[in-house]
Specification:
The chain is mainly α. It is built from 13 helices and no strands. The longest helix has 34 residues. The radius of gyration is 25 Å and the shape is globular.
């Protein structure tokens, strides 16, 4: 089963051509099920993929109906937890009453059970929603608490790296690039899974950009692009599109700054003693009093 980050990426790219390929494969599965003389039990991945396709296509209302309709016995406990988290993401996007409270309850329950995997999932989802609603400070505080629990609640290194990357993203939303850079330095970026590696290098580029460092920003985007080309599924295209967009925005800002420099130099050029500043083009002589 995929992670909640896959679902969050899907929400941002409903027109991605990869969804057509997913639909084609699911159509083949449906045909084989219909034509088979023996009943075929579909795996957890089939349910996950169908839910993700609805989200990816932007059909959130249908996703909100489909996920609860999945029978309890048709998926294992891990898959059920993932589907519940998916449903929470969908309901948050639909601004469903009580969805935010449900997510906060997930965080509290996972913390009480010392389930670091569930705690990380719930916290990062809640933080993303808070960021989307302009509450980056609250998101950063939530993730800072999550990262601070590392000593008390041991967990896989990958889990903590994911939590740290989410915190870095929230801090960049809150325009704290120096702090974000320090946190990125504490992570072995080359050891991250490819999609998280892309996110990390894009965060690194954003931090350098906010600090006015264009060269290291472009270098970080180059590294993000190399990592993205190593992804062996359709996520690669979404990552490459995000990198291209960030590169274009950075280049645009540099061009805007360059266009202002001649004007700024003219304004800052020192005047000789006793000389009046030049008149604008077309202006007449200044009348004497």
């Amino acid at each position: 089963m995929g992670s909640q980050d896959t679902a969050l990426r899907a929400l941002t790219s409903p027109s991605h051509p990869a969804w057509s390929e997913v639909e084609r494969h699911l159509a083949v599965v449906d045909r084989l099920v219909r034509e088979s003389d023996e009943p075929i039990e579909l795996a957890d991945a089939d349910v996950w993929l169908r839910a993700l396709l609805l989200i990816g296509r932007g059909d959130l209302d249908e996703a909100a109906r489909f996920i609860p309709s999945v029978p309890e016995t048709s998926v294992n406990s891990s898959a059920r937890r993932t589907l519940e988290l998916l449903l929470t993401i969908v309901r948050l996007q639909l601004n469903a009453p009580g969805a935010l409270d449900t997510c906060r309850t997930w965080v509290s329950t996972a913390r009480g059970k010392e389930d670091i995997g569930r705690l990380t999932d719930a916290s990062t989802v809640l933080a993303r929603v808070l960021e989307d609603h302009g509450r980056a400070d609250e998101a950063a505080a939530l993730l800072l608490e999550l990262v601070g629990e590392r000593g008390d609640t041991p967990g896989p290194e990958a889990t903590w790296s994911r939590a740290m990357l989410a915190l870095v993203g929230a801090e960049l939303q809150g325009v704290a690039p120096t702090l974000a850079l320090r946190r990125l330095e504490s992570i072995d970026l080359d050891a991250l899974p490819p999609t998280e590696g892309v996110d990390a290098y894009m965060h690194l580029a954003r931090a350098h950009q906010l600090l006015g460092r264009s060269r290291p920003a472009f270098e970080a985007l180059d590294r993000a692009e190399r990592v993205a080309h190593g992804i062996d599924d359709s996520t690669r295209y979404g990552c490459l599109a995000e990198i291209a967009l960030q590169r274009g925005m950075l280049q645009g800002r540099l061009l805007a700054v360059d266009s202002l420099r001649p004007r700024r130099r003219a304004l800052e050029r020192p005047r000789l003693p006793g000389r009046s500043p030049p008149l604008p083009v077309g202006a007449g002589p200044v009348p004497r009093p």
